[in-house]
């Protein structure tokens, strides 16, 4: 009996097997999802910002990049900025 059913299955066209459709369905769903994502991206583009929100917030609060640049320079050269150096000892008057 087993041989009869396998002979009948071998004579069928490929589209009659359910496993073939399961293998084809995975990539087909991904391709369709890709086209849907492309449509959404083209239909709803992101707005272009003139100023980044972080920069605008920093300007309002008066934050500058000076401490970061001083730290970078100190790491590169090993020298402290003039504002952080210890004042030179004044000579004592006799």
Q: Any chance you could write out the topology, listing elements then pairs?
A:
Layout: H1 2-10, H2 18-43, H3 53-61, H4 66-77
Sum up the structure in keywords.
94 residues, mainly alpha, 4 helices
SSE-based structural type: mainly alpha
Order of helical and strand elements: HHHH
- Quaternary state, please? single chain
Rough outline: elongated
Number of strands: 0
Percentage beta strand: under 5%
Question: How many domain regions?
Answer: 1
Give the count of helical stretches: 4
Report the major sheet.
none
Question: Would you kindly provide a written description of the structure presented here, covering whatever features stand out?
Answer:
This protein has one domain (2-77). The protein is 60% helix and 0% strand. It contains 4 helices and no strands. The model has no long low-confidence stretch (mean pLDDT 76).
């Amino acid at each position: 009996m087993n041989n009869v059913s396998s002979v009948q299955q071998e004579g069928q066209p490929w589209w009659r097997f359910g496993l073939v459709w399961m293998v084809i369905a995975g990539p087909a769903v991904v391709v369709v999802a890709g086209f849907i994502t492309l449509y959404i991206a083209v239909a709803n583009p992101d707005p272009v910002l003139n100023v980044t929100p972080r920069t605008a917030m920093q300007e309002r609060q008066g934050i500058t990049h000076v401490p970061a640049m001083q730290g970078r320079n100190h790491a590169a050269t090993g020298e402290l900025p003039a504002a952080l150096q210890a004042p030179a000892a004044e000579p004592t008057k006799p």
